[in-house]
Amino acid sequence: MPDDVVLQQVELDRVWQTVDPFLFCVHHNDDYPEGDEEFGPCAPLVGRNIGMDFSGRDGWSMYHGSQVPGFPQHPHRGFETISFMRKGFMDHSDSLGAAARFGRGDVQWMTAGSGIVHAEMFPLLNRDTHNETELFQIWINLPATDKMVAPHFSMLWSHEIPRHTFLDDAGRATEVTVVAGELVTGQHAPAPPPNSWASRPDTDVGIYHAAIPVEGSWRLEAAAREDTLRTIYVFRGGSVRIGGTEVLGGHGAVVRSEVPITLTDTGDGAEVLVLQGRPIGEPIVQYGPFVMNTKAEIQKAYHDYQ
């Protein structure tokens, strides 16, 4: 493997930098207290900026919620949202009439398309113990031809999602979850919504979570296409070595996708998220929850929502 496989590194802020076809990625990790009878935190909210609480105070945030943490009704148009729950639960409801409570390994994949209004709340179901809640919220773009398709809501249940164990030469096991794409021949992730960029066979979209053990190594094979863009986020643990480059925890790395790479933990164990796909390569104009190709389309989206 060549040493120069890491093309760029960035430090991770609250919102992680992404590359085409991805638009947005956030890792929420909240240690909520016990829940009350309304599924909110059994703790005082004094001192929090209710409605806009991203403080992380005492290890958790209310986000835009006032009683239950989360994101009350808000609109989207022109892209897709992917909610990958690792701990805790999410209550989803939307203007299509769909509703679901999911969590603990489940994934919700929603095509906003021409427009949808939805809510994403984190109910605190445990009354006698903490409510750990961890998830990734990922946005992936839609090409111009699909930005106004009918909205669609899909659930990828935990038991349907492939999970693989890869052993390195010393027998150390890396556990990998495949939310999108295929790492082992014949074991493809559940199908995304029908108009998703990921539903096209030539877009090579992959979303992988890997837990690498102490001093363990994981070999990630070359992407299916030479024009695939691949980013690796080291979000937990000390650091990993990729080729001849050390990528510290709390950093993302854009890597070459046309060659296989090996990720080696440097001593503490690490968790990484991999996002990859063929870029759409179209103009992006974003205003809050709307992502289109032109300013005029954004103005129309805003007008339609009002």
Fold topology:
Layout: E1 6-11, E2 15-16, E3 22-32, E4 70-76, E5 79-87, E6 89-94, E7 99-103, E8 107-111, E9 116-121, E10 131-141, E11 152-156, E12 163-167, E13 173-180, E14 206-212, E15 217-220, E16 229-237, E17 239-242, E18 245-248, E19 251-255, E20 261-265, E21 270-277, E22 285-287, E23 290-292, H1 295-305
Antiparallel strand pairs: 1-19, 2-3, 3-10, 4-9, 5-8, 5-10, 6-7, 6-9, 8-11, 12-13, 13-14, 14-21, 15-20, 16-19, 16-21, 17-18, 17-20, 22-23
Question: What can you see in these coordinates?
Answer:
This protein folds into 2 domains: 6-12 and 161-277, Jelly Rolls (Sandwich), CATH 2.60.120; 15-159, Sandwich (Jelly Rolls). It is built from 1 helix and 23 strands. The protein has one helix at 295-305; strands spanning 6-11, 15-16, 22-32, 70-76, 79-87, 89-94, 99-103, 107-111, 116-121, 131-141, 152-156, 163-167, 173-180, 206-212, 217-220, 229-237, 239-242, 245-248, 251-255, 261-265, 270-277, 285-287, 290-292. The strands form 5 sheets. It has a 7-stranded antiparallel sheet with strand order 1-19-16-21-14-13-12, with no helix packed on it. A 6-stranded antiparallel sheet has the order 2-3-10-5-8-11, with no helix packed on it.
Task: Describe, in short, the structure shown.
The protein contains one helix and 23 strands.
Task: Name the features.
single chain, mainly beta, Jelly Rolls, 2 domains, 6-stranded antiparallel beta sheet, 1 helix, 23 strands
